[in-house]
């Protein structure tokens, strides 16, 4: 994980929960789906609401503003396939969640 960053303690986010984290000047939403962590861009592609304030249904995170659903494993948007959200690889190592940002 060459561009990996330690962004949270794994036990700080319970299964079924999401929250916003900041890393290297970017806002990401970190999600725990049944113990597996996923990271996506925090800004909703619709009108920019914080997806970290959204609610999770399985692996679909719903935007708090208008309810668009995003599959956090792929970034796909249920209602607007042309408006996916970017995903980032996330792993747990030594009790911490690491996220890989792209090199840019
Ligand atoms: S701002 Fe997210 S669905 Fe409208």
Describe this structure in words.
- By secondary structure, the chain is mostly beta strands.
- It has a single domain, classed as Rieske [2Fe-2S] iron-sulphur domain (Rieske Iron-sulfur Protein).
- Helix content is 0%, strand content 44%.
- The protein has strands at residues 4-9, 18-23, 26-33, 36-41, 55-57, 60-62, 69-71, 87-88, 90-93, 96-100.
- A four-stranded antiparallel β-sheet has the order 2-3-4-8, with no helix packed on it. Strands 1-10-9 form a three-stranded antiparallel β-sheet, with no helix packed on it.
- The chain is globular.
- The two termini are 15 Å apart.
- The model has no long low-confidence stretch (mean pLDDT 95).
- Residues 44, 46-47, 49, 63, 65-66, 68 line the site of FE2/S2 (inorganic) cluster.
């Amino acid at each position: 994980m060459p561009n990996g960053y330690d962004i949270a303690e794994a036990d700080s986010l319970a299964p079924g929960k999401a929250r916003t984290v900041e890393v290297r000047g970017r806002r990401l939403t970190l999600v725990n789906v049944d113990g597996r962590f996923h990271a996506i861009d925090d800004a909703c592609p619709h009108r920019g609401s914080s997806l970290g304030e959204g609610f999770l249904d399985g692996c679909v995170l719903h935007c708090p503003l208008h309810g668009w659903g995003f599959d956090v494993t792929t970034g796909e948007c249920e209602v607007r396939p042309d408006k996916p959200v970017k995903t980032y690889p996330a792993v747990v190592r030594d009790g911490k969640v690491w996220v890989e940002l792209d090199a840019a």
